[in-house]
Amino acid sequence: MLSEDELVTTCGLLLIAGHETTVNLIANGALALLRNPDQLQRLRDDPSLIRTCVEEVLRYDPPVQMTARIAKEDIDVSGVTFRKGQLAILLLAAANRDEAQFTDPERFDIGREDNRHLAFGMGIHFCVGAPLARVEGQIALDAIARRLKEPELLLEAPAYRENLVLRGLEALPVRFGSVQ
Asked: Model's pTM, two decimal places?
């Protein structure tokens, strides 16, 4: 049973994690589509790609860049020993660009099928909100692709908020011809 402090802390974490990360997923996805108009057109031509589009956004420009874990016991990872109690920082975004895992990892490809990214973590640390985040991303990016006519990115390099863990834009200025 959780104490009152633990319950309040957990609720706060779920609220922030569930909101901030999804906002960043949608903005990062919109930016990737605007920077890759061929992929935006591909999504418009084939809306069934929305599922793989969101997975590709999560791999290509994930809202969570890194996480940390404390070793519960001595463990060897690829020849590096982490001692019990030692902090390990995991660079999820870097792993999502691993050439050994992904063909042409620097390319944004909304049809990428073999996309075993780490945007939601793994194992017992897998994000409990992943299904909801995926659906929210699919709804928002589908609406952007379908409804915004002639979108134009007004800043080639929009500013990001200063945060080592979360990657999110300060703003995404876009001009568009009309909304359907």
From this structure: 0.89
The greatest distance separating any two alpha carbons of the chain, rounded to the nearest whole angstrom, comes to 58
Each residue's pLDDT tens digit, 77-98:
889 999 999 999 999 999 999 9
- According to CATH, the topology of domain 4-179 is Cytochrome p450 (1.10.630)
